[in-house]
Amino acid sequence: MSKVFLKGLLLLSIFFSLWFLLSQIDWMKFLKVEKFTRETEEKMGDLFLEFFTNEDKEITDTIIVQRVQLLVHRICESNKIDPAGIKVHVLKKNDVNAFAIPGRHLIIYSGLIAQATNQQELCGVIGHELAHIELDHVMKKLVREVGFNALVSITTGGTGTETIKSVAKLLSSSAFDRALEKEADLKSVEYLSNADINPEGLATFLDKMAKEEGKANEYFSWISTHPESRTRAKYIREESKKVKTKDRPVLTEESWQLLVETVD
Question: At the N or C end, where does the chain have fewer CB atoms within 10 A?
């Protein structure tokens, strides 16, 4: 009986100790920090978006914008991601690239659309970048490589244009570490499968990029930012075998061809 009593006393002691520690947390301060972080991310997103759209013109052609939005919406809606919260921008640039920036902005270069063999390949890249957004990889990378105080300084005007340019380059042309890239790849397989889009598209796109690796091709930005394409294509295919996908195209073949012809 004494052992039971001691165990009960121990549990009560642990309970009240935890309660005391939690009561010492300034929750209002904590929530304000969270709000501050979100506001900082939004400001950074607007700032970097302005930088990229000043560098390259944002496409407003409805033939292009609406079709790309349809692809993004299918993936989002099938994975309980609010489509309205993803801000898609198609920029006129020959680089084969797509990347996410703070504030849930997704930037896609026209060169990527032009080089995609089919809509499944483009959806594969979109799914990968959406995974980076949803898994908060963008801010994790920036905080680790730039530092939180430096990022705050950028949003408050405490740094010059060269710093902004340097961080923007980091966002568009620097790889995530292998662990984050693989996490985004595997999450994209899940996203695509849920959206009835064949994940094989991402693997075939990576195979295509692998052929360009090592070549001095200034336009294939997605190669330098996403190394070891063949390795990634292999484990994406392995993961794809674990899921059943109906492969229901988002766009008709005519609609897809019109998108490619218009963006080229």
Answer: N
